[in-house]
Amino acid sequence: AQSVTQPDIHITVSEGASLELRCNYSYGATPYLFWYVQSPGQGLQLLLKYFSGDTLVQGIKGFEAEFKRSQSSFNLRKPSVHWSDAAEYFCAVVPGDSSYKLIFGSGTRLLVRP
Amino acid sequence: KAGVTQTPRYLIKTRGQQVTLSCSPISGHRSVSWYQQTPGQGLQFLFEYFSETQRNKGNFPGRFSGRQFSNSRSEMNVSTLELGDSALYLCASSLRGEEQFFGPGTRLTVL
After folding, report:
1. Which residue, among A92, A85, A91, has the nearest Cα to A110 in the 3D structure?
2. What is the DSSP code (8-state) at residue B25?
3. What mean pLDDT is predicted for residues B81-90?
4. Does the N terminus or the C terminus of chain A have fewer Cβ atoms within 10 A?
5. Are B103 and A32 a contacting pair at CB < 8 A?
6. Helix, strand, coil proportions of chain B in percent (round to 5)?
7. What are phi and psi of A12, to 5 degrees?
């Protein structure tokens, strides 16, 4: 079945430490790939996107993500986490089957230790 | 450029009532999508409108409906509310559909 998997429900890191959030998808074609962040009680903010081309994409707030076709993965990284990064992070895909619905993973909640 | 706006931000209704939520997309965007977010089911796609036509539909009952106006503003309606309809309803706008920008959401509570 077509799906987006975020295997980590919660992740806790210390402020200043590096971060990697995992995302795997199962679609035949290369979908459009996104990472969104949601703070409590808020909507979703787009961090970055991958459509084609360079597989390492840069986003806002110092985030980057790498698309690996062989692993069907699109992991989000940040070299040094700030306390304000504490939020929930969602990986999403547009399947590329001519529909434009976003399919979301279940999210990863990031906690930052001072 | 102003972002996506949604009204109202909070709603409390009782079972059996109906509700209408409104979304104003980013100026120039012609695609509006709606999503439901619940703790149990996560984020689920409801439907997408492009130039006043429903282009995609998710797997929700017919009680959930929507429309889009000529100015790209969109409304979604839920009739005969059930307790399980309590959720955060998110609207997203896009130029053509790929890159979607979200509003703050409408928190619906059904009592």
Report:
1. A85
2. P
3. 97
4. N
5. no
6. 5, 55, 45
7. -120, 130
pLDDT digits (tens, 9 = 90+) for B30-65: 999 999 999 999 999 999 999 999 999 999 999 999
Kindly calculate the radius of gyration of chain A based on its CA atoms and give it in whole angstroms: 14
Q: Tokens in use for A3?
A: 């799906």
Separation in Å, CA of B50 to nearest CA in chain A: 10
Which mean pLDDT values do the consecutive 10-residue runs of chain A (114 residues) have? Answer: 90 97 86 93 93 93 95 96 97 82 96 95
H or E stretch covering B53: strand B53-57
Q: Give Cα separations from B29 to A19, B46, B61 (angstroms).
A: 34, 19, 27
Using the Cβ of B66 and the Cβ atoms of chain A, whether some distance falls under 8 Å is answered with no
User: Does residue A88 sit at the B interface (CB-CB below 8 Å)?
Assistant: no
Kindly provide the b/e burial profile for residues B69-103, where b requires at least 16 CB atoms within 10 angstroms of the residue's own CB. eeebbbbbebeebeeebbbbbbbbbbeebebbbbb
**DSSP state string for A58-111:** E-GGG-EEEEEGGGTEEEEEESS--GGG-EEEEEEEE-SSS----EE---EEEE
Q: Assess contact for A21 and A76: CB atoms under 8 A.
A: yes
CA-based nearest residue to A75, from A94, A89, A96 = A89
What is the C-alpha separation between B102 and B4, in angstroms, rounded? 6
Contact, A48 vs A58, CB < 8 A?
yes
Structure tokens at B30: 């012609």
A99 touches chain B (CB under 8 A): yes
